[in-house]
Amino acid sequence: MKKAEFAVVGLGVMGQNLARNIASKGYPVAVYNRTASVTQDFVANFSDDYHLIDTYTYPELIEKLEKPRRILIMVKAGLPVDAVISDIKAFLDPGDILIDGGNSFFEDTERRTIELERESFLFIGAGVSGGEEGALHGPSIMPGGSQAAWRSLQEVFTAIAAKAKDGKPCVDYIGPRGAGHYVKMVHNGIEYAIMQLIAEVYDVLNRGLGLSAEELGHLFEEWNASELASYLIEITSKIFKKRDPESGEPLVNLILDEAQQKGTGKWTSQNAFDLGAPTHTINAAVTSRIISGMKSQRTTAQTLIQGPATSFSGESGVLISAIKHALFASILLAYTQGFGLMHIASDEYGYNLDMQTIAKVWRAGCIIRADLLDDIMQAYQLNSGLDNLLLNDYFRESVTRRQGALRYVLANAIKMGIPVYGLSSALAYFDAYRTGRLPANLIQAQRDYFGAHTYRRLDKEGSFHTDW
């Protein structure tokens, strides 16, 4: 019997769909799940369409794999990944390859890479984005780790990855050790930010201007045919059009307003604080999800705390047009913050990240895919060492000419008492970055006053302390 060329351990929806994707490209896949019935049902349901080989123990899985064995682990991040690695490595040979395709924290991937290489195994931490449909039809894949392992996986990963409009696969080697999972973490941070920006725009349009879900669906559909074209804008237009089959109401109106999170956005913010990178809008998105979870307190506070009337007195068409431009500028600034963070991390961790490659990999398959990623690619093609996207002519001019619209939207949202933390944080980032002299001089004076922390001067070299 022909041996499998690839294996998938963990048959949740993502694992199953990736196994089907790989098998559909002509690579026989051996599959294993801790619960045997899951393996049995999966193979029974799909073996007529795909070359799938069911296995029920690790020794059986290893026996049915060609060498070097390539094993994709698709289990919950954290201890479950460590448990699988610990249990399976006893049956591996030197040079076999383990791949973690889950949302693992990059520092865990760093540790696992070092530990496994000491035992002569190869390890890849691969960020995989695109959800269930992407896993089946073509995800964006961000592999980091052993270059020898990448060479062995490149053909398979290229076959299963999403293809951009120019036909290029949305996968490439990202960098050593935890680089792949690091880039996936930042991807998710940007995802948090864009989702928050879209949600705030929805709030202004819905509560402030009274646009119905149906009207919003048509508006977002129009926007998706413009410079805002992206996966998240596209699915938002479809969400607004979906109706509850029982009541006939727009389904979005019936969903509880508590945004949950798995932690990857928070990891991005925490890491940005550690590295000293400004990620205003990602941080705002994380904080906004936290306060959304305080539903009972917010419901009580609504009856006790008065705010302004949530009504707009101007020309609605003018505000709608401004919102479109404000959203684009803010999304661009969210990408700017994410790429800025990766620029700093690349030096800090020795990842040698290629920003053009990252933009290329994100152009299709992933959740934050958008037309403007082609422009980001071009910006880094012109200057691979670009410190910040705002230093590129196209992006600087794109935000600069839309800043008036963003300020207009924020002013009106504030007048109406509608929280726009993400949008306002994007503008604050823009204004701070373009300001040559910030008021941090006063903060340094305060620190020196109460703690003798010293300060530096504009007119002299050295460190100074004053007896205030």
What does this protein look like?
The chain is α/β, with parallel strands linked by helices. It is built from 20 helices and 7 strands. The protein has helices at residues 13-24, 36-46, 58-63, 79-88, 106-118, 131-137, 147-160, 179-208, 213-223, 231-241, 264-275, 280-292, 295-304, 316-349, 355-361, 372-382, 393-400, 403-416, 421-433, 440-451, and strands at residues 6-9, 29-32, 52-54, 70-73, 97-100, 122-129, 140-145. A 7-stranded mixed beta sheet has the order 3-2-1-4-5-6-7, sandwiched between helices. Helix 4 (79-88) links the parallel strand 4 (70-73) and strand 5 (97-100). Helix 8 (179-208) crosses helix 12 (280-292) and helix 8 packs antiparallel against helix 14 (316-349). It is globular, with a radius of gyration of 25 Å. The relative contact order is 0.09. The model has no long low-confidence stretch (mean pLDDT 96).
Q: Please state the CA-atom Rg, rounded to the nearest Å.
A: 25 Å
Low-confidence runs:
none
| DSSP summary, beta strand count | 7
In what order do the strands lie side by side in the largest sheet?
Answer: 3-2-1-4-5-6-7
Largest sheet: 7 strands, mixed
Number of DSSP helical runs? 20
First-to-last CA distance:
84 Å
Order of helices and strands: EHEHEHEHEHEHEHHHHHHHHHHHHHH
Overall mean pLDDT stands at: 96
- What share of the residues does DSSP label as strand, in percent? 5-15%
Q: In terms of structural class, how would the helical and strand content be classed? A: alpha/beta
List the helices and strands and how they pair.
Blueprint: E1 6-9, H1 13-24, E2 29-32, H2 36-46, E3 52-54, H3 58-63, E4 70-73, H4 79-88, E5 97-100, H5 106-118, E6 122-129, H6 131-137, E7 140-145, H7 147-160, H8 179-208, H9 213-223, H10 231-241, H11 264-275, H12 280-292, H13 295-304, H14 316-349, H15 355-361, H16 372-382, H17 393-400, H18 403-416, H19 421-433, H20 440-451
Parallel strand pairs: 1-2, 1-4, 2-3, 4-5, 5-6
Antiparallel strand pairs: 6-7
